[in-house]
Amino acid sequence: MAGYPPLDMSESERRRRAAARARRKRQVLRNRLIFAAVCLVLVALAGFGVYKLVCVLTAGSPAGGQSSSVTSASTPASEPDSTPVSEPASEPAGEPVTPTTEGDWRLTLVNNNVALPDNWQITTKVAEASTQKELADEAADAYMQMKQAAALDGVDLLLCSGYRTVDYQQNLFDQEQQKWLDEGYSEQEAYDKAKTVVAVPGYSEHNSGLAADIVTPDHQTLDSAFADTDAAKWLFEHAPDYGFILRYPEDKQAITGIIYEPWHYRYVGVENAKAITESGKCLEEYLDGLSA
By three-state DSSP, how is residue 53 classified? Predict the structure, then answer.
């Protein structure tokens, strides 16, 4: 019958043919394995190529292709903790701090004897989401960076007062003056007492948008005891790195005309803050030295 060896085929011939068929089967199996391996390599290369293409296409977009947004001065800022922490500006090692004083609006002096300039114009934005308190744009950004840095050190800062309109300042001053009138002081005496605690409207740093009353959730009373809190100690050491100075030091009341306020900080910019702090002077003294 066709396809079968003759009945009289020798035993050796049958073995030879069986061996040949086995070799052909092994060859077919080997070829199939090689083909499968080549296919796997090609699939892997194709997948890698698609991945690289996606990376190239998305490389030009922030956050892997997500669109960025701009917050205007009239739009409340995001929660401070959602903003990436920025390192405070630093000075080159071994070089002295050089304050930028010529025409620097951040050094504008406002006190009981010097009113805010009539042409003062700023834009403000929310610096503290929980209180919705605002500061001038640059000061607000610096405060949010400082708040996050403090949080990393386990310190919780809270902006309880920032930018105030002159009308709002007038209301605060009237309340303070009335307290002294109720204690029996004359109109002029009550006025003089009040202005050591609350700045005269138009003469307050808060009207500039550069002043920040900073406390901590566990101690929100504006009193000298705040100086003993971890928040006050952290601010005293680190605030200049973010452009803020302690505006009314304990030993400068005769010059500033304001009682010791360990919670009241003034934004002047990093270079200026470091120079003022290193000088040991209050803002009035420092500016007098520059003009001398």
Answer: helix
Contact status, residue 280 vs residue 183, Cβ threshold 8 Å: no
CA dist., res. 6 & res. 14, Å (int): 10
At residue 165's C-alpha, the angle toward residues 163 and 167, to 5°, is 150
- How far is the C-alpha of 193 from the C-alpha of 202, rounded, in Å? 17
DSSP code for 289: H
Which residues form the catalytic set?
261
Contacts of 260 (CB under 8 A, 6+ apart): 224, 248, 249, 250, 253
Q: What is the Cα Rg of the chain in Å?
A: 37
Strand, coil or helix: 83: coil
pLDDT (tens, 9 = 90+) of the chain, 292 residues, equals 444 444 455 666 667 676 667 677 777 677 777 777 777 767 666 666 655 554 444 333 333 333 333 333 333 333 333 223 333 333 333 333 334 445 899 999 999 899 999 889 999 999 999 999 999 999 999 999 999 999 999 999 999 999 999 899 899 999 999 999 999 999 999 999 998 888 888 999 999 999 999 999 999 999 999 999 999 999 999 999 999 999 999 999 999 989 999 999 999 999 999 999 999 999 999 999 987 6
Q: List phi, psi (to 5°) of 75.
A: -100, 130
Cβ burial of 32 (10 Å; 0-12, 13-18, 19+) is exposed
Residue length of the chain:
292
- What tokens appear for 180 in the block? 């002294």
Burial of residue 181, with CB atoms counted within 10 A of its CB: 0-12 exposed, 13-18 middle, 19 or more buried: middle
